[in-house]
Design a protein that fits this description.
This protein has 206 residues and is of the alpha+beta class. The protein folds into two domains: 9-101, no CATH class; 124-204, Immunoglobulins (Immunoglobulin-like, Sandwich). Helices cover 35% and strands 21% of the residues. It contains five helices and eight strands, in the order H-H-H-H-H-E-E-E-E-E-E-E-E. The protein has helices at residues 9-12, 15-29, 42-59, 64-92, 96-101; strands at 124-127, 134-137, 146-153, 160-166, 170-173, 181-190, 193-194, 201-204. Strands 3, 4, 6, 7 and 8 form a five-stranded antiparallel β-sheet that branches. Helix 2 (15-29) runs antiparallel to helix 3 (42-59).
Amino acid sequence: MIVKPAIGFLTKDSDAQLDQDIETVVTSMTDNDNFPTPSPTLTVISTALSAFTVALAEAAGGGVEKTAIKNAKRAELVSLMRQLASYVLTTGDGDMTKLLSSGFPAQKTSRPKIGPLPTPAAPFLTQGPVTGSLGASTQPINGAYIYNWRLALASAPTVYVKQVQTPAASNTFEGLTAGQIYNVQLNAVGTAGTTDWSDTSTLMVV
């Protein structure tokens, strides 16, 4: 597991929350033996934090110019904190205890990668909500983000009259000819690629 300091709060925090969170980092890293030579120095960080705190208070009264100054001070402070996070990463040696002692939150561990997906089950077909429509669904597959569907007349099974993509494991085909028998298949797409086509399901549309 790779241990990294999380820096999302630098952009997600409100101004007031950012002020507090960075103060926590400065306090935590002061005289911290795990991080003996912070870069940038904590003095530089503290100076930028103080400037931001002052600008934040002045901007509370309103005014475009004061708000612009506050935003500029925040940007300067965030840039310095990103550099400090890099220092914490390289100095922390992948040690979670050391990282947390810095006052930075730990980055959430990434989810394990999902390998090749299984082929979807043959779709379950139903008559659609209106004449000439057909509903199709299958059991959702974990890790699939797109499903490809194809529909053909049973009398011409390799000529696909409709091909669509959906984010969900269901679809409604419309504009079909009542009295005709249709074949439906689907596959699923994940980070590792596209599955094989499912077995075929068949239904006469009414």
